[in-house]
Amino acid sequence: MTDLADAVRSGDRFSLARLLTMVENGTPQGRQALDELFAYTGRAHLVGVTGSPGTGKSSLVNQLARALRGLPAGEEPHKVAVLAVDPSSPFTGGALLGDRIRMRDLAGDPGIFIRSMASRGALGGLASTTAAMAQVFDAAGFDMVIIETVGVGQGEVDIARLAHTTLVVEAPGMGDDIQAIKAGILEIADILVINKADRPGVENTERALRAMLDLATPERMANRPCGHHAPGVPGGPGQDEQDDPVWSLPVLKSVAPQGTGIPELVQAILDHGRYLRRSGAWRQREMARLQCELDARLHASLEQRWRSQLPEGYYEAVLQRLGQRDVSPHQAVAALLDPQEAPAS
Ligand SMILES: Nc1nc2c(ncn2[C@@H]2O[C@H](COP(=O)(O)OP(=O)(O)OP(=O)(O)O)[C@@H](O)[C@H]2O)c(=O)[nH]1
Ligand SMILES: [Mg+2]
User: Fold this and answer.
1) Is 92 a pocket residue for ligand 1 (Cβ < 6 Å)?
2) For the whole model, what pTM was predicted?
3) Ligand 1: which residue has its CA nearest to atom 26?
4) Is the C-beta atom of 195 inside 6 A of ligand 1?
5) Which residues, chain by chain, have CB under 5 Å from ion ligand 2?
6) Are residues 234 and 221 part of one domain?
7) Based on the domain organization, do 59 and 28 belong to the same domain?
8) In which domain, by residue range, is 321 found?
């Protein structure tokens, strides 16, 4: 094992920070360390926190990290890593700085590691970079990895694919009208949090969410993104102890800055982790996620290999012929996959 991977495993924070940067930048050295560390991953509970801009995700994550630090995971208190994925959207212009200020009071604790990632820096794609960074934390012995993303479309789904437990954060005033609550977000939630419960309109928000949940529940189970319930994936150990095989989605309220509702939220996260392990869903999600990652990497590698073997300008030429109706799309693909097979022009 390289010194870097070794140092990360033994808990050296400087090496951890260095490796995270390498992984974010997609360097060969980072990839090598990841390969070496992969065997030591698979232990961490990955918790995704998503929701509309400004609903209080960072404030909640801050409180969650603090609360989890105070709880023993077996003999030791949890080690908590926080990965804040800032999509550099116009909504979140100043959020990164805000996060740093709010989270500074956690920074002296060696059992907490906080890292922000700007999505524009993720060369290999946001989802795969986030997954790789979570693996680094996992191998470094962090048993709780909290990943915050602003939910603006695909981001939520990607997080749900990565996380074992997905928290969706709503706030009053933003989701009172049903329009504002994207139905898709309910499909990925394992726990719903109505934060800013000190704000007026919280009852309306709760009512609207519960009504939508009642309508959406059957599909919610069936529509897990990217094969969360992939058929044919064997469950893990303990599958036979199915005393609570169905997870009924909790709807919780919180006031993050005051810590109100945080113990209940922590409890729900730990309960969900236990539920996943007991029902075999943990292993199922793990396998579905690994399959997603494998397929995505395979597609990317195949395409890269294929492109590198293509004669210069050949793709553009085929595209031209397609535009002139000289070849059909089907013929164009055949020609691109095998330049010898191209119909004569
Ligand atoms: N009144 C009230 N304000 C809150 C609560 N939680 C967070 N806030 C405030 O709401 C603002 C946004 O909080 P953040 O935690 O940065 O929200 P966020 O969802 O992480 O924001 P983005 O990352 O920009 O999407 C801050 O000014 C917080 O102090 C709450 O429960 N009640
Ligand atoms: Mg935030």
Assistant:
1) yes
2) 0.83
3) 56
4) yes
5) 57-58, 95
6) yes
7) no
8) 314-345
